[in-house]
Amino acid sequence: MTDIVLSVHSAPEHSRSLLAYHYAQAALALGHRIRQVFFYQSGVLHGRLQSGQVAPVAADWLRLGEQHGFPLILCATVVEQDFQLSAEALHSGFALGGLTEFSMAAAQAERVLQF
Question: Could you tell me the pLDDT band of residue 77, with boundaries at 50, 70 and 90?
Answer without folding.
Answer: very high
